[in-house]
Amino acid sequence: MPDSLVRRALRRAGIGRRDRSIEMLTTAVRELAEAQRQQAVQLKKLLEAQQAQDRRWEKALDRWQKSVLDTSRRRHDETLHAQERVQTRWQEVVGSLRRSNKNERKWHVIFARQMNAMMRALQLSRMPLPAPHDLTARRFRIYSQNEEDGIILALFQHAGVTDRRFVEIGSGNSGGNSALLAYECGWRGLMIEIDQRKIDSLLENFRHNPGVVGVAAAVTPANVNDLLRDRGFAGEIDLLSLDIDSYDYWVLEALTAVSPRVLIVEYNAQLGPDRALTIPKDCALDDIPAPLRGASLAAIEKLARRKGYRLVVCDPTGTNAFFLRDGVAPDLPAITVAEAYRPPVDRWSLEGMPMADRPGPPAGGTPLVEV
Asked: Where are the beta strands (DSSP E) in the chain?
């Protein structure tokens, strides 16, 4: 029998209605479950898509933050570098201006002092002056730093000359106190300086005078005599100038190879005029503060007097002391340390004012020794 007929027959009999309802309910439940499953799948996909989008945003945010941070750091570094370049350039400009001002001041002072020297020569040359003013009034500068050129010539006018030989210990690249005698007067001499470059420059400046010998060496009490004898400078010479800013006292004490008629020694005016002070003989120079190196005028004068020399004058800047060997130029009298001492001055000050920041004589407990 066909199903349709059966179903109609069952419906007429009322049979199958409940089963049909159950079937429909079951179908509806299945459809609802399928819809819920599909909805869950869609939600899962949406959630995964949202999570993927969130990750992309997080990565984009990280990249942006990193880019902003890198840019900020780069700009910060560039700003710092620019500031450093500006600061360096500014320091260069300031340094250049200071050097320019210093050079301008230096040459202004040199010119003014040269004019003063000419006025002294014109106005004081015929006026009798007592010692040591008769020597300091003759001072002028051509090659020396502190107008020693004129004082040296004045001394040799009194002392006369013999073989026109000199020894300059601590010549720098200018020739020091002997430069005028070597360059203008043709004197032969030995110039010693610790820096080979300065010796090379010096020999180039004096290339017209083959009698000038240059030696690069650190002069000590132990080697000073050999340095002079090995270069043929022994016995009597006209001039010895000593300026090494350290062991000057001990080098002079050890010196026996030559007997100069005129002796020039730089002293440390910052040590004052009263005490005979110098650095220890065997000390490390780095252990001695620069303002305390060398020896006081009293120490140099005491040693020179013991070796047969008398103090006759100091230059007005408080730099060099000038001595004559006993028996040389007897018309020039010895003067005391108190009479000769000059305090240190700023040599680029036209007024020649004492240095305001000089420490003065050292107190007890200094690394210096009294001789």
From this structure: 165-169, 188-193, 212-216, 235-242, 258-266, 277-278, 309-314, 320-325, 369-370
